[in-house]
């Protein structure tokens, strides 16, 4: 566990390669993967985002694994008023040169619950470093402070949903992640 700032929580989870492979195989078997959209308008805009994604339920074992990391980081680090998943889990694939997601926030009202908003975002890497080149994950901690992560298989990053972040363009290969948002009552 690495606590570098009050802005993010990094967990090298140690999830075995075999488990990540099962997740990837399960999601590809679903065959529901489509071009990712840009919120809030839910449009495809490859200048902002070029990836594919599908949505997973929040009551399955994958969501249970991710929620363990959220609860752990919140108990030990963030101390936010959290209740539950704010939306379904996103399985995201960046494939080939130029795949990316430009600077954005994750803040939004929950699509599941009234009077609930996204507070903590989680990203879990399902690819090994040698499966892709480029595609670094970056957090904008302040206008003059940016943190870059070269995530490896099983690495988890949890951060406040209001932090700007991006996935830099891939140079080659395939980068696969799980992404989710835990919510609670609006900030006061």
Give a description of the structure.
By secondary structure, the protein is α+β, with helices and mostly antiparallel strands. It has one domain: q2cbj1_9rhob like domain (Jelly Rolls). Helix content is 17%, strand content 43%. The chain is built from two helices and 15 strands. The strands form two sheets. Strands 1, 2, 3, 5, 6, 7, 9, 10, 13 and 15 form a ten-stranded antiparallel β-sheet that branches. A five-stranded antiparallel β-sheet has the order 4-8-14-11-12, with no helix packed on it. Strand 1 and strand 2 form a beta hairpin.
CATH class: Mainly Beta
Percent of residues in beta strands: 35-45%
Find the CATH topology.
Jelly Rolls
Tell me about the biggest sheet?
10 strands, antiparallel
> Which second-level CATH architecture applies?
Sandwich
Helix content: 10-25%
Distance between the termini: 30 Å
**From the alpha-carbon coordinates, what is the Rg to the nearest angstrom?**
15 Å
Structural class: alpha+beta
Short précis:
The protein is built from two helices and 15 strands. With 188 residues, the chain is an alpha+beta fold. The chain has a single domain (2-184), classed as Sandwich (Jelly Rolls), CATH 2.60.120.620.
């Amino acid at each position: 566990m690495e606590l570098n700032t009050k802005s993010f929580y990094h967990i090298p989870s140690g999830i075995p390669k075999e488990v990540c492979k099962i997740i990837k195989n399960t999601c590809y078997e679903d065959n529901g993967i489509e071009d990712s959209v840009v919120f809030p308008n839910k449009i495809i805009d490859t200048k902002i985002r070029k990836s594919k994604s599908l949505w997973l339920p929040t009551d399955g074992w994958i969501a249970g694994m991710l929620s363990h990391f959220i609860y752990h980081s919140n108990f030990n680090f963030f101390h936010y008023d959290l209740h539950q998943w704010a939306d379904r889990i996103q399985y995201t694939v960046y494939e080939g040169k130029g795949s990316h997601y430009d600077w954005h926030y994750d803040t939004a009202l929950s699509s599941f619950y009234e009077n609930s908003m996204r507070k903590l975002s989680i990203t879990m890497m399902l690819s090994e470093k040698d499966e892709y080149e480029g595609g670094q994950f970056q957090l904008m901690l302040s206008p003059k402070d940016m943190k870059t992560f070269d995530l490896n298989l099983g690495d988890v990053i949890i951060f406040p949903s209001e932090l700007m972040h991006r996935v830099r363009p891939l140079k080659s290969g395939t980068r696969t992640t799980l992404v989710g948002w835990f919510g609670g009552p609006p900030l006061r």
